[in-house]
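A further point concerns the way the authors explain their paired sequence and structure data. Each protein is reduced to its one-letter sequence and a matching series of backbone shape codes. An entry of this sort, consisting of the sequence and the corresponding backbone structure tokens, reads as follows:
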Amino acid sequence: MTYTKSELSELLHLFLDIGEELNAAGGEVFRVEDTVTRLGRAYGAIRVDVFAITSSLEVTMAFPGDIELTRTRRLGAVRSDFKRLEALNALSRRCCATPMTAAELRQELAAARSHRRPAPLYLGSAQAGGAFAIFFGGGLMDGLLGAAFGLLICLLQETLPRLFPNNVLVSFVAALLTGMGVGLFALIPSFIHPDMVMIGDIMLLIPGIALTVAIRNILVGDTISGILRLTESIVVAVALAGGFMVAMSLFDLGYPAPAAHAPWVQLLCGAVGSVGFALIFRLRGAFLPLAALGGLVNWGGYLLLYHLTGALFLSCLLASTLAAVYAELLAKRLHAPTTVFLVPAVIPSIPGSTLYYTMFGVVRGDWQFAGKHALLTAEYALGIAAGMSIVFVLFATYQKLVGRAKERKER
């Protein structure tokens, strides 16, 4: 089909809409760039240049007839919504296979946009907060209280953005109120282990996925996006730490005594926690068992590898490699974005406990204790990101080789 310049301009605006929605739903930068590029080529563009970072999307497309169009779009905040991400991914596939008119594409995009919340956020938050309170060594009462404060955190995350201008203040206030609530319960002798409850709930607030993805972006060459996302994640993490540290300083908490549960308890709680985050991210119901299995694959691999090697970084790297391979294979089999399977799978590895102990050491003025756990936090994050990056590069290389072989065969 041939298009007029005004029709191409209208289509380009729709391509930007799709890229913006993908970013907002939790799609990676490379997915935004790749999707917009494929859409442009499907509509006859002879050259497509797409540049995306966390806050901006710029597209230039050249078409036959000396038509060249450039548009820029500012990207908004990200709030992962895997059901909407799937719908947008499926739409782009259909559109690339059989190009639609601008009116048809606009109608399909409106339908994909309708895949928004509400989602079982409160259930997911309670489930994840309680499961990880036990996962990191807490008891049943710690898990119940972690679930209760998970509900509070979900309420705060839904309401505070209306009162505060940015995510930094939201994170600080949410952490402060949660920490003070746990501290009040800690005044009851032998009632709970406050460190375990806080760690379980830190998992709901820590930008661990964003931090890990930022490091992965840097490792695979998306340097600008990675640095921007890394900077934002660190600022949010500092605000989160500040809120909890103020709460800790108000209550005289003794030194934490980390105690690992039996492997089967960790595996069970890790799987339950992964499903909790899958609910928060609005993963399709049919995929929830796969989220649980992904958590088992990741944490089971870590436990086995750490038992065999005793090397934390290597164990994290290989375990995240297993999780990434698992996610890539599922994505190919089920024609869904890799992200929807990878993120829940790596959740048990996010270093919420070491971040808590780092904050505790700072509050106590025990810099050796704080420094030790800060290094462990970095080791976890680097290991996870490196494993994910290795698999991403290998699969991307394989797809390029297959594509080139297919082109040669068609010629």
User: Anything to note?
Assistant: The two ends are 23 Å apart (CA to CA). Residues 121 and 280 are 5 Å apart (CA to CA).
